[in-house]
Amino acid sequence: MTSDTATSIICNNIYLLGMGGFVLTNLISKIGADVKKLKSTKDLWNADTDKYIKETALKSDKIIIA
C-alpha cells in the first residue's frame, strides 16, 4: 500500500487526536482522471458515487473533508 502526502497528514492527525482510525472515501470516482488537464468536471462521477459517499458517511462518527 502506498500513500500520498495528504493521506500521511490525515493519518498523523487522526493519531494525534486519539481517534482509532479513519475511512478514506474519494469524492471523484473516475479512476485515472488527470484533474490538472480537465476542461470540465462532467463525467468525473457516476450514479454510484453519491451512494458510496452516503453509505460511508452513515457509518462514521465524524466526517472530515480535507
Question: What would your notes on this structure say?
Answer:
- There is one protein chain.
- By secondary structure, the protein is mainly alpha-helical.
- It has a domain at 25-66.
- The protein is 36% helix and 0% strand.
- It has 2 helices and no strands.
- It has helices at residues 5-16, 47-58.
- The longest helix has 12 residues, at 5-16.
Largest sheet: none
Shape descriptor reads flat
Helix/strand order, N-terminal first: HH
Oligomer: single chain
Q: Helicity range of the residues?
A: 25-40%
| Number of discrete helical segments | 2
- SS-derived structural category: mainly alpha
Separation, N- and C-terminal Cα atoms: 20 Å
Which stretches of 5+ consecutive residues score pLDDT under 50? none
- Please report which band the strand proportion falls in: under 5%, 5-15%, 15-25%, 25-35%, 35-45% or over 45%: under 5%
Q: What is the typical, i.e. mean, pLDDT? A: 81
**Could you tell me the number of beta strands?**
0
- The Rg value, from CA coordinates, equals 14 Å
Topology diagram in text:
Elements: H1 5-16, H2 47-58
Tags for this entry?
single chain; 66 residues; mainly alpha; 2 helices; flat
Entry summary:
With 66 residues, the protein is mostly helical.
